[in-house]
Design a protein that fits this description.
There is one protein chain. This protein has 2 helices and 13 strands, in the order E-E-E-E-E-E-H-E-E-E-E-E-E-H-E. With 232 residues, it is mostly beta strands. The strands form 3 sheets. A 9-stranded antiparallel sheet has the order 7-13-5-6-12-10-11-9-8, with helices on one face. Strand 1 and strand 2 form a beta hairpin. It is globular and about 40 Å long. Pfam families: Pro_isomerase (PF00160). Keywords: Isomerase, Rotamase, Signal. Its EC number is 5.2.1.8.
């Protein structure tokens, strides 16, 4: 489900699963919370995370992330789309459990060949929402995890944040902010988008959308596909 991004009072409308893309608010469904992926072990300072089942069938079979997460530094990632590459810098210091989940899903190919079903482009609200392989806004990886918030979060252009369907319902869905947006500090910020990536998203927004999403924006007029997400 595209998590609810309501504008101004806007509640990131996440269609069921996680955050801004799931209406159950983007909580990916993956029940194997005690299994681990084959990601390399974190170096340096670490923290312990929990990824319990969200009770939903995962959109794709994946293992839940390892519970030990890197808790310092940054991780580079590239989201390759049919419009071009979007460079990301993931902030493991600010959001270790979120980054740990995103990296695990990316390394398992969860995001490969998946649609970004929502673009919001009105004043005070500019986001591209992705992370649900079903493209319905209600799909996820089968597990959820807690918010990583300070209460001081803001969402200027260049922000990478989790979509959700309420407190502590993070899953696989996320949104990329390409225009300064006014949201309450309810969505975990876990990275930034590079300048070239913002240009790619602006090109997507320029294609327009059907305006059908109740919280703003809608389905892109031209299909947007994540071809792969590369870590490092």
């Amino acid at each position: 489900m595209l998590k609810r991004l309501a504008a101004v009072t806007v509640c990131l409308s996440v269609l069921t699963l996680t955050g801004c893309g799931q209406e159950n608010d983007d909580a990916p469904a993956d029940t194997a919370s005690d299994t681990t992926s084959e990601s390399s072990e974190p170096a340096g300072e670490t923290t312990t995370c929990e990824y319990p089942s969200d009770g939903q069938e995962p959109a794709r079979e994946v293992e839940a992330p390892d519970t030990e997460a890197q808790a310092e530094g940054t991780v580079a990632a590239t989201m390759t789309t049919n419009f071009g590459d979007i460079g990301l810098t993931l902030d493991a210091t600010a959001a270790p459990c979120t980054v740990n989940s995103f990296v695990s899903l990316a390394e398992q190919g969860f995001y490969d060949d998946t649609p970004c079903p929502r673009i919001g482009d009105q004043e005070g609200f500019g986001i591209l929402q992705c992370g649900d392989p079903t493209g319905t806004g209600s799909g996820g990886a089968g597990y959820s995890f807690a918010d990583e918030l300070t209460g001081d979060e803001t969402y200027p252009a260049g922000t990478l944040a989790m979509a959700n369907g309420g407190p502590d319902t993070n899953g696989s869905q996320f949104f990329l902010v390409f225009r300064d947006s006014q949201f309450p500090p309810s969505y975990s910020v876990f990275g930034t988008i590079d300048a070239a990536g913002l240009e790619v998203i602006a090109a997507i927004a320029a294609e327009g959308n059907d305006g059908a999403h109740p919280a703003g924006g809608g389905t892109p007029n031209k299909d947007v596909t994540i071809e792969k997400v590369t870590i490092g």
